[in-house]
Design brief:
This protein is mainly α and 146 residues long. It has helices at residues 8-58, 63-145.
Length: 146
């Protein structure tokens, strides 16, 4: 007789939920990396503009050009602040997805253990049946030889 776990569909569902949680985490990590890359770009642009502003102040530059550089620098600062908020939100999302994945892994392990326990019980029952059959065969042979 073959072992058939009656709750196999539930176990498959838990494995599927874990896989989906892994995908969700992967997606959240991708978003976080994208946000970090954009933040890095903004910071690099800010550094470039600050350097240009420093050079412009030593060279002959009009006040309007200095103001234009300063306005762009202010704009970049606002963008950096917004992007830092986006990065924090993405980090929180990654944490949430990690927690969700942890829960799904635990659930799957619980159901896997239940399946293993059911299989162990099935194996023990099959061994007992087999031993009983062997004992009966041995008893029949002994009776026939006597």
């Amino acid at each position: 007789m073959r072992f058939r776990y009656p709750l196999q569909k539930l176990l498959d569902l838990k494995a599927n939920e874990k896989t989906q949680a892994e995908w969700g985490l992967s997606e959240a990590v991708g978003v976080l990396q994208s946000e970090l890359a954009q933040l890095s770009d903004y910071q690099q642009n800010r550094n470039d503009v600050q350097q240009q502003l420093g050079q412009a102040s030593t060279n002959r530059t009009t006040v309007s050009q200095l103001l234009q550089h300063q306005d762009f620098l202010d704009y970049l600062e606002k963008q950096i602040n917004r992007k830092q908020a986006d990065v924090k939100a993405a980090e929180l999302e990654v944490e949430l997805k990690q927690m969700k994945l942890g829960e799904k892994v635990k659930e799957e392990k619980v159901w896997e253990k239940a399946k293993e326990k059911a299989f162990d019980q099935f194996s023990a029952l099959m061994q007992k049946k087999e031993q009983d059959e062997m004992d009966e065969i041995a008893l029949t042979r002994r009776i026939q030889t006597v």
